[in-house]
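Hey, resending since the last one bounced:
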Amino acid sequence: MSQAADFAGVSKATFLRHEKTGKTTAEFVVKIARAYNVNEVQSLINLGFVDEAAVMEVAIEKALGMAKNSQILAEMNKRHDPEARRL
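The structure tokens again:
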């Protein structure tokens, strides 16, 4: 356990307190996740700090903003009926 605390860059007392009480903070979750190269957002979702639907909503909007026109058009082509006159 002390090796895990050292590896994550947190005090042993803090690590033990979180384990003993069974409670933690989002900040602590992120520190541990990053130290062990685990996705911090998924860790926050798994522990109930963040709602997955809210994350997906932001992720979709962000992805659309970053997508190239060709990527958006390719996705639209996958979704429409080629025989339809309108989308």
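The longest helix spans residues 52-66.

Sorry for the duplicate.
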